[in-house]
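In full, the data.
>
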Amino acid sequence: MTRVVLLGASPGSPEQNVPPGHLALTSLPGSPTVLDRLYGQVTSMDPEPLAIVRPGEAGDHRRFPAQVVESPDLASDLRALADAAEEATDNLFLMPTGAVVHDELIYQITKAKRAALALIVKEPREEDENGERVQPDIPIEEAEPEIGDRFLEGLPVRVRAGRSRVVSVGSAYHAVTRPNAVLLGPLHLHQRHAATLAEAARELADMAHLFGPEDDIVQLLVLGLVRRGVSVGIRGRRDLFYSRVGTQAEADAAVAAMSEFDEDRARLNNAVKGADGFFTTYFVSTYSRFIARWAARRGLTPNQVTLISIALGVLSAVAFATGTRAGWVAGGLLIYFAFVFDCVDGQLARYARKFGVLGAWLDATFDRAKEYVVFAGLAIGSVVAGQGDVWTLALVALSVQSVRHLLDFSFGAANRRKPPNPLPTLALSVADDRPLRDALEKRRVSRSTGVRGLLKLWTKAGRFRAVHWARKMIVFPIGERFAAIAITAALFEPRVTFLTLVIWGCVAATYTLTGRLMRSLA
């Protein structure tokens, strides 16, 4: 459950904007309005969203099952939002009422792992002949002409965004050093930060006389969160559409621009995990996502696909146990497709948005079971083929893999209990953001020495594609393990397969254990 708050006030002169309840999505008679579409999108998250709107717009919102708060000005908006944040028992999702947005973009923002996430547009990166970053002279709306977002026209660029989070935010009163982005509007916030949001909103309400008509309420809220040390992550629009409209011409242009985006393809691409290994990325996910969509359209569930994967894994073990070259080749093919369907079940769950505790348990448990059953099949096949007893090697391979899983789960559990590193704070009464920037720089320098410095250098090395994929492969993820089993069993014999698993598994265990010890020390 997510608490949705719709914000009716937009930056700019109110006389230039038409209430979204009066803006039609198309010119056809009886066409739904921008507000109709937005309520249809958010009521699945919150059956009775809160709408903080100007008195003239209240009637449009009372047509829907919403809690409507009439607010005459920015200060009242902020105080009403503070009240809502203090009462919130769920995560908060803030959205301007004039938004035209894809359903998938809302889903991705609200399901992100970041405790706070804002949608932004960054200026393009430009470099001079010395490779130094320079500020472009073109306005931000011209930097992304394919989006056609006229909402950005005339708005100052008042956000400084880093690689993964908002660094500083400005207003008519607050300066921001080297701004490079515009905050678009949607903001998702974990419930644990709701009290911080409420405090910031009340303080900003007392300062409302210092702000200008171009200051957006969400931008001010992000300003308050950042100044209080909350890490606000950033997300661009990527292959999805978002725009804010204030006139019928803008609404028409937004709907036309949105139709040029393939939302289903974006949803399908989002169903693939971005952190997969090399083999999975290039030899499975290039087509498995389409199997997942095919399965979704025919009503198959992720659990049913998991059972297919399990059956293929068992058949693979049976084929390996025959002790023949044809059986080993067939086993290699079967274990490959068992892994393909293992990927499909997760992609299907994310694409169809069908998640369950049973499915997650089945997937995690039987991934291991398939692997160990295949070990047994290979060991039996070696004996049947008269190539000697490899049970000892099989047990060593199983032990190495079991220890690696134990280390993975224990480190993950310990990492979740780790308190977050606090970010520097700065009072909202301070107009200049340089003290905050200086504190961030000192924090960066302090984290760039010793063990932390080595970890940071290794992280930066991952920007090189070859290093990135080498790091992915060295940890010997399940895709690489199944590929190693399939290839070595088909081309050689079980002894070679187990030696590969043991040697590569030990290298992977050493690498991951070293990294986790360094992270623990840091």
